[in-house]
Structures are given as structure tokens and as C-alpha cells.
Amino acid sequence: MFSSDDKIKKEEEKLKESQKVFGYVFDNTTLLNIYKFFHNGYLERFEFPIASGKESIVFAASKGNKFFAVKIYKVTASNFKNIREYAASRWGIGKISSKRKLMNEWAFREFENLKNAYEAGVTVPRPIKVYGNVVQMQYIGTKTRPAIQLKDIEPSQQIVEQIIGDIRKLYLKGKLVHGDISEYNFLYYRGKAYMIDIAQAISNDDPYSLILLKRDLNNIIRFLNKFGYSLNIDSVIKYVKGEIDAFR
Questions:
Q1: What are the domain boundaries of the chain?
Q2: Which of 57, 164, 205, 217 has minimal CB crowding within 10 Å?
Q3: What pLDDT, on the 0 to 100 scale, is given for residue 96?
């Protein structure tokens, strides 16, 4: 597939080595989607693997001296049935029977939700491009090490206010509810907490949105209050929904 381009061949070999770390093998269509980023000038090389989850894996990649994050949704995701059921209830696309098409949709939702959140002023990685089941976005971290998760720091008052404020911006300006907020879905870098893993976010006018919002806030408040804060769920919900101007 990449025989006419030695540079692409080397990157393919590097990807294969990284896959061994994750115990996952890309199918040919995923490799073709990755190739599009190189062919169209978005990327020049893959650097190192960052993280692996049930639905996706993330790599650091670069163009020149600039680094990016590349999130690849697994076409062979083991919990495909759960994802399809979620898609049926939240997105109305549950009739899609192809894993590939559904993971492409999942990647597209990640890109669009990131774009929506970014434009609303939420601290998220800036989305750059999506091809099929592959999303390119801003890389958070140094050239040798990705940013740590929120769970690995003691959050300052400034971070607490930023996180709650971003959930509010996402709700009021982005018209979205994240749906999976926890200390594991924020990256901490240079004094800021970056909200990540936003593919499953739903519209704030969805009948289920308030339930998810309460769950999100309960999760993050439970974590933050471990450090001596006394956040009250009722006050924070009213603040996020724009019913009051302060949550403390």
C-alpha cells in the first residue's frame, strides 16, 4: 500500500511496533485513513503511543517541530454492542450494523463535539482533522511525555473554578453535557485542566441530559472535595445551568 513512499513505509513499521505494545492490529482501512493525514500534509511522523482504551488508542505524532495527538477508534472494539445501543438511544443511528461505520461515526462525534466545546471557550484539545475512524487534535504535553491526568495532582482553587466553569460553558454555550466526567477525563498541563474523551456528549435539551449532568458533577465534586473543598451539588448544578452566578 505504501510501497512507493519509503517515509510512509517507515511510519507504518513504527505503527506496527506500537501496536504490539497495545496488543491491537490495525485493519487496512484504518491504515488508509492514517495515510490520508500524511498524504494531505497534516502529519509527517508518528512519535510514541500515549494511551489505550476499550474503544480507542492514542498516539503522539508530529509535523516539523509541532506535536499532535492522533486518536484511532478501534474497528474491532469488544464492546461494540454497548456502543451501538448507546448510539441508538442518543443519536438515532442504532440501525448501523457495521462496526466500521459506527466507529467512524464515533470519531466524527468526537471531532464535532471538540469543535463545539472549543468554540464555546471550553479548555479542550483543539480539533484539527478527522478521516474515518481517526481524529487529529492538539497534543497536550511535552515532546517526551504526555500530560498527566487530573487524578495525579492536588487541584488548586484555580483549577476547581476552571473545571466547574468549563462544564458550565459546555452546557450554556456549547449546548452539550459531557456524560462521562471524572478525574480520569481531564489532562493537567501548565496550570490548566483539559477536558477530553467527549465523543459521547449529548445535547443539553436531550431528556437524559440532566441525569448525566448530575452524574458528571457528582463524580467531579466527589474527587475535588477529597482535597478539602466543600462543593455543594445543588449549588454547582444551578451555577452550571446558569440559574445563579456563583457556586460558592
A1: 6-138, 148-240
A2: 205
A3: 60
Question: Angle at the Cα of 103 (from 163 to 201), degrees rounded to 5?
Answer: 25
pLDDT digits (tens, 9 = 90+) for 131-167: 999 999 999 999 999 999 999 999 999 999 999 999 9
CATH code 1.10.510.10 for 148-240: yes
Q: How far apart are CA 33 and CA 58, in angstroms?
A: 15
Whole-angstrom distance, CA of residue 110 vs CA of residue 127: 9
Q: Is 197 a catalytic residue?
A: yes
d(CA 177, CA 197): 12
Q: Which of 5, 27, 152, 197 is catalytic?
A: 197
Predicted confidence (pLDDT) per residue in 26-45, tens digit: 788 888 999 999 999 999 99
Q: Which residues, listed in sequence order, are joined to residue 57 by a DSSP beta bridge?
A: 52, 72
Rounded to whole angstroms, the Cα distance separating 22 from 149 reads 19
CA atoms of 232 and 164, how far apart (whole Å):
12
3-state percent breakdown (helix, strand, coil) of the chain, nearest 5:
45, 20, 35
pLDDT at 3: 38
Name every residue whose Cβ is closer than 8 Å to that of residue 17 and which is 6 or more positions away in sequence.
none
Instruction: From the candidates 5, 6, 152, 180, give the one annotated as an active-site residue.
Output: 180
CATH topology of domain 6-138: Phosphorylase Kinase; domain 1 (3.30.200)
